[in-house]
Specification:
about 80 residues; about 25% helix; alpha+beta; about 40% strand
Length: about 80
């Protein structure tokens, strides 16, 4: 399973709509509204690199998304 954290900067006032759209995407497993340089963090999981690429492009294409930074997970530890 491929995983990535996508840090999203959105247009002012679009946080709610972007979060709603992210929650509808099958590849988005978790979504957080945050304070700081970025507005939203989304955890994306996909079964292949092609599926991951498609999910990230779908996030970038959402209305209200200004920019993204994708961090590909190389190792995951769960408590």
């Amino acid at each position: 399973m491929n995983s990535a954290i996508v840090a999203i900067t959105n247009d002012i006032g679009t946080e709610g709509k972007v979060m709603e759209a992210l929650c509808q995407m099958p590849a988005v497993r978790e979504c957080y509204m945050v304070y700081g340089v970025y507005d939203i963090l989304a955890k994306v999981q996909a079964s292949s690199e092609e599926e991951m690429s498609a999910a990230i492009h779908s996030i970038r294409d959402l209305k209200g998304v200004r920019s993204t930074l994708t961090l590909v997970v190389c190792e995951e530890h769960k408590k």
